Amino acid sequence: MTTPNLTKSSPTLVIIRGNSGSGKTTAAREVRRRFGRGAALLEQDYLRRIVLREHDSARIDPVAPTFIAATARTALDLGYHVILEGILHTERYAAVLHQLIDDHPGPVAVFYLDVSFDETVRRHLGRDEPIPVTPDEMRTWYTHRDLLDIPGETVIGETSTFEQTVTTILHASGLTTVVPQTPCPRRCPHCARKADQTTTATDAP
Fold it and tell me: This protein's superkingdom (predicted)?
């Protein structure tokens, strides 16, 4: 999905949503790892739970939705491609996400990992470091197919393997073809040396 005012120099905004245990965080981290420097990874849980230490409840008129959207907008304005991931329930986040998307002049790609409740529990229990929550607690968070209803929103089902999911996000978002726009990978001597070493190793017989 691309916004109408697409320009070559505009960074890319990627939004990855899904229920707890759907695999969105692991996929987002791998997408950023494969892209390299020049892409900012914004995790809802970190920004809300660690930075703000705020409960995710509509009853308190939370600050997190506005804060997360503003953080993404700042990173985009500074030339970073942005990968934003989280449950990002439409009840609290739909308005700020729609505004973020509408205001961004560059490419936007939105993904929803559509995973059943039973599968989210199975994946949660299979984590190396499971979050200390019970299936009953997870059920209170679970929202079936909580789509943003944006044209071009890509729904990735639970039969998609991790590799397929990451590949889909990379290719559908266009991150496989865009280049870094931030100072570090473009002008950093350390990055230049690393690139030269990679080229030399690739060219070696």
Answer: Bacteria
List, edge to edge, every strand of the sheet that includes 108-114. Answer: 39-43, 81-86, 13-18, 108-114, 154-157
Spell out the domain ranges in the chain.
13-203
Burial of residue 150 (CB within 10 Å: 0-12, 13-18, 19+) is: middle
Are the C-beta atoms of 53 and 45 separated by less than 8 Å? no
Rounded CA separation 108/7 (Å): 12
pLDDT in tens, 6-31: 344 899 999 999 999 999 999 999 99
22-73 residue pLDDT tens: 999 999 999 999 999 999 999 999 999 999 999 988 888 999 999 999 999 9
And the tokens for 164? 């397929």
